[in-house]
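tool_call predict_complex ligand=uridine 5'-triphosphate
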Amino acid sequence: MNFEAASALLEKYSQQHVLHYYDKLSDTQKATLLSSIENIDFSAFKTLNMAENKQLGQVTPIDALSLKEIKKQRSRYIQTGLAAIREGRVGVVLLAGGQGTRLGFNGPKGTFNIGVNKPLYIFECQINSIMASCAPAQTLPHLFIMTSPQNDEITRKFMEEHDYFGYDKKLIHFFVQGVAPAINYDGKILMAEKYKPVLTPDGNGGWFAALNKAYGRMLSKWGIEWLNLAGVDNVLQKICDPAFIGATIGSGVNCGCKSVKKVSPEERVGVICKEDGVPTVIEYYDMPQKLKVRHDVKGELIFCYGVILNYLFSVEKLKETIKKKLPYHLAEKKIPCIKGGKKFVPEAPNGYKLEQLAVDLVKLMGSCIAYEVEREVEFAPVKNATGADSVESARALLIKNGVEL
Ligand code: UTP
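tool_result ok
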């Protein structure tokens, strides 16, 4: 892309300031800047208003497979799930491209050591989980790990140095997610350097587009029909859980979604429900207050199923939706940048990262079962250094579940 084309493109989106220092740059810096502009997905700006001004349709509760129901059908579900794992029809995708800003750890979250008396890395917890679930099938699934341009190299190196925690190296495949520009409160792209926009990981919603680009043909070649998507930071989750896989496949739906009963109306988790009759996940900040607090006659929350970022998706259906653009959401963050030409490290949030969200895929699937799991047994996300959903709370839950730390 040459200067004139870049300038015209930026003008279309009122972002001409990106070229403010162009005349003062070296030739290499000019080339870097033009190439960055060429690679920015400006369609993100069009979808922003869509996500932020979205009007909800009619929101109704979803019938979930409750713990009680699952208990009754458990052995049947497990049989179906183990058969799918054994036949290689299930793959796992671990989302590890996040920046983990709330945890404040200087490195990819998966490389964090949650152990106390001996090392236990977050990646190790996830690998252990898959190996335990799949032991009865006597085989392991292909494992796809999503990284970001910022943490790809260090993640690969870490896994190699730890011998993939005993997983078969040939079954592990890394792929890199996309990035999006960060913006200030006026919607202007922030600059990391005079020749470089701030580009941050574009959320976990682009995972299938990125995976399909890197391994789309291999998914078909290896006969992978289902993908179990899991976040990296829930150290207690069961990945590739045969009962969950069997229940989803056996229900004839395109998607399964592990959920826990919310502890309070205000808990900051997305809720699986229906919008205009279609299963969907509504983020806590989009859920109207009157729906959040609605109770039934027994005093139970009506919109009670919170999602824990553990889904099973039909690959065929995912491929059908690939052309549909997910909206970008605004995530308010502290974003280091340049201000008046000088480096600026903010102490309070100063703008937004643009993120697509995996939860937005659920609605595109058309059909989905909510599958209840016990939160004390399957939900210990490491989001913060202390307090709720922290290293401390996750350690306590791991110990409660018999994991030696
Ligand atoms: P979070 O929403 O908790 O984001 O990610 P985060 O970046 O890890 O942490 P904060 O918000 O900066 O503190 C939920 C899951 O989605 C993955 C994360 O790695 C985690 O497994 N994720 C998030 C990505 O893979 N890419 C992203 O761009 C964002």
